[in-house]
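PT: before anyone asks, these are the final sequences, not the draft ones from last week. 480 residues across everything. Please model them as a single complex and drop the result in this thread when it's through.
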Amino acid sequence: MSIEKRLRELGIELPVYANDTYYGATKYGSMKPFHIIGNVLHLSGHVPERDGNVVHPGRLGETVTLQQGIEAARITGINAMAGMKQALGDLDRVVGIVKSLNFVACAPDFHEVHKVSSGMTDMLAEVFGREIGIGCRATIGIQALALDNCFETWMEVEFR
Amino acid sequence: MSIEKRLRELGIELPVYANDTYYGATKYGSMKPFHIIGNVLHLSGHVPERDGNVVHPGRLGETVTLQQGIEAARITGINAMAGMKQALGDLDRVVGIVKSLNFVACAPDFHEVHKVSSGMTDMLAEVFGREIGIGCRATIGIQALALDNCFETWMEVEFR
Amino acid sequence: MSIEKRLRELGIELPVYANDTYYGATKYGSMKPFHIIGNVLHLSGHVPERDGNVVHPGRLGETVTLQQGIEAARITGINAMAGMKQALGDLDRVVGIVKSLNFVACAPDFHEVHKVSSGMTDMLAEVFGREIGIGCRATIGIQALALDNCFETWMEVEFR
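LR: through. Structure below.
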């Protein structure tokens, strides 16, 4: 239970997805939360929701500040960890973040999308340690996300 | 041949990709239709073309209505099934939609991208049943697609 | 060493990523260059940087011409090959480009994103031959990329 201990040290509390199918299943359309092939966990898109509310809706470079975007990305990463726990039962089974493809809703001239994503990926490195927690990554600035979310991640995780 | 029977029941007719390389191979640039690794089928992007014409070109929230977007997504899913059939020979070999990453060309303030994608994913659930047909999913609203298509899907499928 | 010979014939010189961690590791945020699972190499996003400078910054259909976009995509593919070499040691180990998801920063009415990507995928076909070098593909026109890059690729490669 070392990851759970680490989460407590960092003051991070995971939402519990275990008792419902998936927060997105009805609200965000027909999908399942995860799919496992061999030792790879594929997660559906995660967004910066908290208690059912969208955190910092809008677009970076317009109504959402860089600091708010970074916070939204951090919350998204926490939700993604809750998705890993729902799928794997125990976060200590995670042996590597394979990769995350990250989407930042933004203005046409916003060129700091990578700084937003680091709000998530820096946090994952803190929780899992750099060897396990840092994955491959790409981040793209896009037009809009469902329900005006400003950030979304699309992640693959390797586990034992 | 249960999936073929199901398609007939639902009145869905698949385009035939078996006798040409790929509808996108010359028109949409240098690519192949699919790549198989182990029991996972990776498909190239599929768009809502029918008989070589782009169905409902434009952007959601501008010239394309939500209902038209949903129809475009449904047609895209039918084309993706044709791609699965081209690759696997028989759709009964499909044991799960791993995931689809979906792109909706849209206006900056269009926040219903998830409803568009459900035009595809609801149909796949009807054809394959929920256990097999519902995959992981993310949907992003983007700027533009090739030839003004309003929707595209990027899918992985598990098969036996 | 047939691919290295082919690169020399084509006058293509790869940047060397072997002696640093990754050009993106600090500049573009917390990420690693690649992750290997079995015989599949996952690469982080690659962009058209050369000697640390962004080549043809801006958006297609605005400040970047189609020809410049095609050149940016070609340079991106060269950088991705450098990433493969960093990961695998020898490009002759590549047995197939599984797929690339490609991002083109562009204006709302730019519908030739597929032509941009072919600047990369045509080059990969020239280097590796069509059987190995042509992968699955999708290309989307997006709002903005980190540091105003006009192109990015997100690639998976099969190797022996």
